[in-house]
Each structure stands twice: as C-alpha cells, then as structure tokens.
Amino acid sequence: MIRGKVWKYGDDVNTDVIFPGRYTYTITDPGEIASHALEDLDPTFAKNVRPGDIVVAGKNFGCGSSREQAALCLKYAGVAAVVAASFARIFFRNAINGGLPTVTAPEAIARINAGDEISIDFEAGELTAADGSSYEFARLPAEVVGILEAGGLVPWVKKELGAK
To answer: How many domains does the chain have?
Structure first.
C-alpha cells in the first residue's frame, strides 16, 4: 500500500518530455538522471517531487522512444508509482524492468487532481482518490510483483539465479 501526493499531467506524455533525449547517453548517475525528470513538461517537478509522490496522467503515458531512462528518472526521483488511463507498452515494460509500479485506472483519472493525496493498495487492486471514491484495477501477476519487490528485473534475476 502506498499513499502519496499527486503530480497530474494529460494525455500522450512522451518519453522526450519525461526524460529529455539530449541526456540519454551523456549521464548515468541516478541522482543526475532524477534531476532532469519531466523538465521539458514541468520544470518544477524534479525540484519539488518528494519520495512517495505519485504521477497521474491520461492515456498513452510514455509514448515515443524506448529509452529506459524515462521510467528510471521517475523512480530515481522518488516516484512511488505512475497511474494512467493507459500506457505505451514499451514504457510499461521499462517501468516494470526498473522496479517502478504502474497502475492502469482510466475511470479514476478524472477524479484525481494535482496535489491530492491518493492511496494505492496493490494487493487488493484498489486506488482511493482524495474524495474517498475507490477504483478497482487489474492486479499485477505474481511474477511482476516479484520483479517490483526485488527492485527491478536485474535484481530479481540475480536473486532467482542465486537461489538455484
């Protein structure tokens, strides 16, 4: 279960505004990557986001190029989850691989505002908006939960290989 403050954006937020392409192959430090999160969409985000905050957006979040830094910059900035009406498939997979939980809850988006505090119960598959309204979402498969709990695909694989 997580509870966090909402940063809300619209439809078709692409990877170029989540993590600007000009930094893709020039920086590798997680702190520096985090400092550029959403800078071309919301220049205040990286300076003001706090650990546990939640990004909420409309449809097709993460469309555009396949750069994994788009998911990682949000995780490194402390974002606890991304909730959207829908996700671009490559962003969704990069988020899981990087250990960043995603929630697809199209009915909830209109009831959530920037600055609200919402909660997400991953086990129950339920999102609760600030006004108390609740929305069900498809729970993630056990394998995906294991990847997220391990902190991403690479730590999960290392753990699995070490166990055998």
So the answer is: 1
- CATH number, domain of 105, equals 3.20.19.10
pLDDT, tens only, 8-18: 999 999 999 99
Instruction: Fill in the DSSP letter of residue 10.
Output: -
Angle made by CA atoms 4, 150, 19, in degrees to the nearest 5:
60
**pLDDT confidence bin for 25, thresholds 50/70/90:** confident
- Among 5, 143, 36, 15, which residue's Cα sits nearest to residue 87? 15
Domain hosting 72: range is 2-163
Pair of tokens at residue 129 = 């908006």
Length of the chain: 164
CA angle (59 as vertex; 130, 24 as ends), nearest 5? 105
DSSP string, 75-98: HHTT--EEEES-B-HHHHHHHHHH
Which tokens is 58 given?
């409309």
- Residue with tokens 């991403």, as numbered in its chain: 152
Q: How far apart are CA 95 and CA 11, in angstroms?
A: 18
